[in-house]
């Protein structure tokens, strides 16, 4: 008499055999991309949302936990959808043209970005700004590698750091509304709230005194 674990073992063997089939490799890569996008999005967003929510947002514990869960879900879902769309379009283009070319990556990512990250919400905005800073650094390095701009004789990073901090604090002081809300909250805590205190309690222990 077959044991209760036999059907499960047979199913696992069949699944493993399917995963080894080269004919399904492109489709399986798309599916695993969806899986990895969902997990990575949750790993990245959950701790960030936890810290930012408890540091800077008011409300009850239930409201805070709900906000954390919603932010984590949105980030995880969007990244999963994007990876799925990107890898699917890459596989489709490669199949149609018989080879992979650089434009495929740009086109597939543009379509995925429009469909998945085109909604202007706080989560998408943070992701796009994160990518923008990396793109600027990457394009600068690429321009030097290709010879479009000369190799700097000295490390330009101190100058870049100086200009970025000078610009962001100028915006914060005089055009605060142009900055992202989470950045406004962080800078308000650092530069505005440190100007106000009443006694030792809200000078050293608490940021703001509560009655």
From TrEMBL:
InterPro entries noted in UniProt: Pmp4
A GO term from the CC aspect: peroxisomal membrane
Protein name: PXMP4 protein
Organism: Probosciger aterrimus
Source species taxonomy: Eukaryota, Metazoa, Chordata, Craniata, Vertebrata
């Amino acid at each position: 008499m077959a044991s209760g674990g036999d059907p499960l073992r047979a199913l696992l063997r069949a699944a493993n055999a399917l995963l080894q089939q080269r004919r399904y490799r492109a489709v399986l890569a798309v599916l695993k991309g969806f899986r990895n996008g969902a997990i990575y999005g949750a790993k990245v967003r959950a701790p960030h949302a936890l810290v930012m929510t408890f540091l800077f947002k008011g409300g009850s514990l239930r409201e805070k936990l709900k906000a954390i869960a919603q932010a984590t879900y949105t980030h995880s879902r969007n990244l999963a959808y994007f990876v799925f769309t990107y890898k699917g379009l890459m596989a489709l283009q490669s199949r149609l043209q018989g080879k992979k070319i650089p434009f495929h990556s740009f086109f597939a990512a543009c379509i995925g970005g429009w469909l998945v990250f085109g909604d202007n919400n706080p989560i998408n905005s943070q992701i796009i700004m994160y990518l923008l800073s990396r793109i600027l650094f990457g394009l600068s390095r690429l321009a030097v590698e290709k010879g479009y701009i000369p190799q700097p004789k000295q490390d330009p990073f101190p100058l870049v750091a100086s200009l970025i901090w000078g610009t962001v604090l100028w915006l914060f002081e005089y055009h605060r509304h142009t900055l992202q809300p989470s950045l406004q909250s962080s800078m308000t805590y650092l530069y505005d709230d440190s100007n106000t205190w009443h006694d030792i309690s809200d000078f050293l222990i608490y940021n703001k005194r509560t009655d």
